[in-house]
Design goal:
- The strands form two sheets. A two-stranded antiparallel ribbon has the order 1-2. It has a two-stranded antiparallel sheet with strand order 3-4.
- By secondary structure, it is an alpha+beta fold.
- β1 and β2 form a beta hairpin.
- The chain contains three helices and four strands.
- The two termini are 23 Å apart.
- 32% of the residues lie in helices and 14% in strands.
- The mean pLDDT is 83.
- It has one domain: Winged helix-like DNA-binding domain superfamily/Winged helix DNA-binding domain (Arc Repressor Mutant, subunit A, Orthogonal Bundle).
């Protein structure tokens, strides 16, 4: 069964509200400002499962990435 793709804004609000990604939270919900946990791939101590999980989830949602594909994060290529 396929999942209906939703726009990024409501998808992101759902992700914030669900608290499924550690560190993703509202800064000011009324003003729609939020904080995203993120570390650049070139930084020491970078971990895929910890530092880009929001971006990975969006890629899965949009169909750009399927679990098991190889990834080149420096060039943003999913294969």
């Amino acid at each position: 069964m396929s999942v209906t793709r939703i726009w990024m804004h409501p998808w992101l609000e759902n992700m914030i509200e669900s608290k499924t990604i550690s560190g993703l939270s509202w800064v000011d919900k009324d003003k729609k400002t939020f904080s995203i946990p993120w570390k650049h791939v070139a930084h020491h101590g970078w971990e895929m499962d910890k530092d880009i999980c929001l971006f990975k989830q969006w890629a899965i949602h949009t169909g750009k990435y399927v679990e098991g594909q190889t990834c080149d994060f420096k060039t943003r290529q999913w294969r």
